[in-house]
Amino acid sequence: MKFGTMAILGCPNVGKSTLVNTLVKQKIAIVSDKPQTTRSRILGVAHFPEGQLALLDTPGLHRPWHRLNKRMVRAALDTVHEADLLAVMVDGRKMPGAGDRAVIKQVFSSPDRSESLPVFLLVNKIDLIRKPKVLPVIEAYQSLGEWSEIIPLSAMTGLNVDRLRDLAFARFPEQEGAYDDGFVTDQSMRQLAAELVREKVLEQTRAELPYAVAVHIDEFLEQGRLCSIAASIMVEKQGQKAIVIGKGGARLKEIGTAARLDLEREMGVKVFLDLHVKVKDAWRDNERLLVELGY
Questions:
Q1: pLDDT tens across 258-271, in order?
Q2: Which of 118, 131, 277, 279 could form a disulfide with 148 if both were Cys (CB 3.0 to 4.6 A apart)?
Q3: pTM of the entire predicted model
Q4: What CA dihedral angle connects 174, 171, 163 and 28, to 10 degrees?
Q5: Contact of 56 with 82, CB cutoff 8 Å
Q6: What is the Cα 125 distance to its own chain's centre?
Q7: C-alpha distances in angstroms, 111 versus 99, 119, 136, 170?
């Protein structure tokens, strides 16, 4: 049996969480088309006949403007010392930009990275472009780092994900897995509930709201086949609160219904979900609130 840990790093919105969900074969990390969806490091464990692959999903690396963002970047870079393998993910539809170059520089120059630590380049979203257009992108990235492997793939469809798995296990030693069979994530259901509500807010809103929204679980009570959850959706301005609630409360109702259905699917029980929207001015720079929110 083999075991190893792979940290997945990259710019925001390149598909890191989608890849983790695909490998684990379960939704443990929320996904959206909004940048900075992932805000903390999430552990996912994929079980295969060859062994266990521990995956560290990380916030997208970016220039931080708030205390929250600084913590997100630190959480991502701190995974370097935990990993047996680093994977830098990029969007295969685009040539390297300033953000991609900054990420690659941060990874290869990290003081926590030993020279022997392998680094894979994952060129994602190749299902969305024609093959001839992928080759110039790969060539452009090739000279930006000393890559151990370069793997074009699609996290969404699973294309070439098996190849990533095989190449990862080829780098890992024979040893017992670190986790029990059936263990897939270190996220509690309480944490997942908050994230699923936030995911639905992201799906329903635009503009600056994705960055200004957080969710706090006020109550999480499991009683047999029923789970009662009360949650507060936090925003920074009154205008944002009105957007989340929507006309006559319609948008908040849609958010609650979608989140409840996802929670019932994940938990296998009936869920009662009570949502409220609160204004917390500048919560992204409030130390106490960041701790309460788990950031």
A1: 999 999 999 999 99
A2: 118
A3: 0.92
A4: 70
A5: yes
A6: 16
A7: 20, 15, 31, 25
Bridge partners of residue 42, in order along the sequence: 57
How far apart (Å, rounded) are the C-alpha atoms in residues 195 and 112? 29
Q: Which tokens hold the place of 236?
A: 């920074």
> Tens of pLDDT along 49-90?
999 999 999 998 888 888 998 998 889 999 999 999 999 999
- Residues 117 and 85 sit within 8 Å (Cβ to Cβ): yes
**What would the two tokens of residue 149 be?**
């492997």
Question: Tokens for 264?
Answer: 């019932």
* Domains identified in the chain and CATH numbers: 2-171 (3.40.50.300), 189-292 (3.30.300.20)
Is 235:216 a contact under the CB 8 Å cutoff? no
> What does the buried/exposed string (b/e) look like for 186-217 if buried means 16 or more CB atoms within 10 Å of the residue's CB?
ebebebbbbbbbbbbbbbbbeeebbbbbbbbb
φ/ψ of residue 179, rounded to 5: -130, 150
What backbone phi and psi angles, to 5 degrees, belong to 131? Answer: -50, -45
